Each structure stands twice: as structure tokens, then as C-alpha cells.
Amino acid sequence: MAQAPVLKVENLSTRFKTGQRGKFVHAVDDVSIELRSGEIVGLVGESGCGKSTLGRTIVGLEKAHTGKVFLDGVELNRLNGREARERRRAVQYVFQDPYSSLNDRQTIGETIEEALLIGGLRSREERAAQITKLLDQVGLASVVKDRYSRELSGGQRQRAAIARSLAVNPRVLICDEPVSALDLSIRAQVMNLFLDLRKELDVAILFIAHDLGLVRQASSRVYVMYLGKIVEHGPSQELYDNPSHPYSQFLLSSVPEADPTTERDRELPMLAGELPSPVDPPSGCRFRTRCPLVADRCSLHLPEPATVSPAHSSACIRAREMHAKRRSIFVEHRAA
User: Fold this and answer.
1) Can you give the residue ranges of the ABC transporter domain (predicted)?
2) Which of 2, 161, 213, 315 suits 135 as a labelling partner, its CA being 20 to 30 A distant?
3) What angle do CA 270, 276, 278 make, to 5 degrees?
4) pTM of the prediction?
5) What CATH architecture applies to the domain 1-90+170-219?
6) Helices 108-118 & 154-166 angle (0-180, nearest 10)
7) Closest CA relative to residue 214, chosen from 157, 262, 271, 175
8) pLDDT tens string 238-260
């Protein structure tokens, strides 16, 4: 029997007003995703595709226009007051920038203690012990609790931010580009920390990133997002080995090669046209204005996700064709 999702998002849409009457930015449009306990799920796409807005809407930092968010089967949108605060506390957000997500006027210990108080831990002795435990859990020495965030390195700040998130025993972590602001030498360490936390705490992690290499390393499943829509979803290895949506193929063709000589000599793929406005997205398939495989019918209706292999779906009319060929259309166009 399949494990029930700890977090389930159904047909979620988030939009923002513009300066024009009746016009909205359709940042997230009819998105459905699932996370299960103890797994890391990747969410990838270009900057501006709606990844961060989706994460912020799930955690309650942005208000959903339509759709539902379930935590352990309970619909969070229907809750109010104390029950809503307590339930939503189980979904924590790790921000991209560790330099602005911590209060410089508080020591790290005070920052974590504040979270523990919000979580209901009233005993001062228990809070002190828990602070030491949390710092140890994220690989920081207990002496860090008496320092201010401005005295820490970027990697230490991000670890402290993660410790604060863990203070309320979350069921889900929404991690928004959590290593992109860190030095390359530190990124692997923080990524290993997320892998350890997944095992130790059985927490579900939504890992938002544009670095596909990091997502491949950490995630068991991946969602690909374009202009507010999920265009492909599948097991990480399957999706990376055989992407079945033109946009996913473009993203993967753009990943740098490990060999610097190969990287220097290769021709990077290019997309036609400009990224459409989320205020006035194209009719039908949103990727059609930049897709090398576009057909007349792509403008008529939004493609339904097609199952190309177990647990792997792609919202493209040619998904099964691309999956069967197992070759990037961008490689073919360069060869031609």
C-alpha cells in the first residue's frame, strides 16, 4: 500500500494585482504536488516561473486564490485562529538568503529560543538543552548560541536558520534555493545536512532550485515548472535520463559539463522568443511560443499530462514520442 502524502497540494493558484484594472499576474496556476515523509522532492525551473511563490503559498506567506493545501489529510485553508497557527507551524520555510533571514539584534540562541517558545516549550532548562541539541543536529558547536548572526559565515548562518526551522518539530520543510547564496565549497556540506535530516527526522523536504545538478543529487522525485504550470513530473533518475517535455530537455541541455574542455567547446541550447508575461500567458500550452516542436493544435488547449512511464508524466502532445526516442530535441536541432 502506497504511503499517504504528508503534504498534498491540489489545483493551487496564486495571483497578484497589477496596476491595470482586471489584470493579474498568474504566478501559480492550477498546480498539484505531493510530498511524503522522509523524501526530498525537487521543484525546478527558470527564475520567475513561480517556484518561490508556490512555496510561499504552501507555507501561508502568500494567499492562494484557489486550490487546497492538505497536511496529514487536514485542509489548512479551512482552519482559523489557534488551530491554523498550530497546524501551519508543522510546515517551515528555509529562505534563500541566510544574511537577511536572521535577526542581527538577537544571538543565535535567542533566535532559536523564540521559536521554541512559540512551539510551547516553557521550561528554561529544557529550552537551553534543546538549543544545544538543535545546534548539534545541524553541525554547529554550542558556543554559536552566544554569537550574533553577523559574526557567522554564510554556511553557519544557513545552518542556524535550519536549526530555527527544526525547533517546532516540522513535518515539512520548504527550502527556497537554500544554498544558492553560499560559496561552492559550502554547498555540498549544507546539501549533506538536508540528506541527514531527511533520514534522522523523517521530514519531507520540498527543495526549490534552478541548479539541476543539486536537485538530481538530493531528490527522489522532481517537478518541472514553467510560467506557473507544472509541465513534467517523475522519479529523479527517470526524468534526468529521459526528459519528455521540451522545456525539461532545454533545462537539462543547459547544465554545465564537468569537463571544462567539453564545456568550453559545446554549443549551448537557445530558446526562441522571450519569456511570455505571466499577466497575459499564451493560450493552450504556455511553452508553445518558444518550443521547437510547436504545432497548430498547441494553441487550442492546454495539454493534459500524459503518462510516459510509471509515475512519470509530461504535459506535452508529443511526450510519448520524445520518451520513445530517448534523445534531446536540442541535440537534434544543433546537429541539423
Assistant:
1) 7-252
2) 213
3) 140
4) 0.91
5) 3-Layer(aba) Sandwich (3.40)
6) 20
7) 175
8) 999 999 999 999 898 877 665 56
